[in-house]
Amino acid sequence: MSAQISPTGRILVGTDGSPASLAALRWAGREAKLRGMRVHVVYVRDMRRPPAAPYAPPPRPAEPAGPVAGESALRQVVHEAFGSDPDGVQVELADGAPARVLLERSVGAEMLVLGSTRPASAEAAFRARTSLGPVARDCLHAAPCPVVVVRSSDVRALAEPAHA
After folding, report:
1. What is the pLDDT of residue 132?
2. Lower CB count within 10 Å: N or C terminus of the chain?
């Protein structure tokens, strides 16, 4: 029996620029290569957050505010994960509630891949009451496709770019 290659298949990856989401991107890149699929990277800006208080310090230059927020982080994390020529990678900057946006984009995807910075050990998870953040938890419960959660402890194991 031979493996089926799906040139139209799509693996959706949610990223926030964290080390765990970088590991998720690299994992998804390797999986997409094995399956002959493309990677759809989505960075969601949660525009529902209230503006900073007037007495709060201004954002650092590396953290742009307003409509530009997220664009540089998205470019940087895609470059780190896939190099300068990310063949077969679609990138998207979206606004809204992260779980809702990822669930909408996951329709028709072969899988949704997310990073988790929550504790991976059973003891730490028991103390934290959950081993997943709210976005991953919501996506696991409602996604129309399989969901893969890459733990932050997997970051070292996935340190090499997916294109290598």
Report:
1. 80
2. N
